[in-house]
Amino acid sequence: MTEQNTAEHSAALAAARDEGRRLGLATAALAMAIVSFINLLGVEKSLLAVVLGLLALRGSNIAGAVRSRSRVALILGTLHLLTVLLVLILFREELSEFLAMLYELN
Q: What is the pLDDT of residues 52-87, one digit of tens each?
């Protein structure tokens, strides 16, 4: 192999490794965004989904699967965060009563 072929080969390997890393991050972000809806107050999972989605979208030459999974994860994570915020605002009185009852049980 010539030096140019070796350089092209290592560049292709680096690009493939980067693409695989991004696809893994995007898949993890999507999974976390979906799982965050199982436990309504699991805000940490939504935040993790948003962070992983943003990490997957960083850089250039983003393939279609990475872009779509990351965007769906960002949308679902943000939607969950907004839902939790809305529930906490709308039901703040009931939540304070519930916390007072839990405190009395202690």
A: 889 888 876 777 888 888 999 999 999 999 998 999
In this model, does residue 1 exceed pLDDT 70? no
Percent of the chain with pLDDT over 70: 95
> What tokens appear for 30 in the block?
């999507």
| Degrees to nearest 5, angle at CA 90 with 83 and 74 | 10
- Helices 64-90 and 92-105 meet at what angle, rounded to 10? 70
* Distance of alpha carbon 8 from alpha carbon 98, whole angstroms: 63
Instruction: Count Cβ atoms within 10 A of the Cβ of residue 106 and give its class: 0-12 exposed, 13-18 middle, 19 or more buried.
Output: exposed
Q: Are 49 and 77 in contact (CB under 8 A)?
A: yes
What does the block give as tokens for 35?
A: 């799982």
Q: Give the integer Cα–Cα distance in Å for 40 and 54.
A: 22
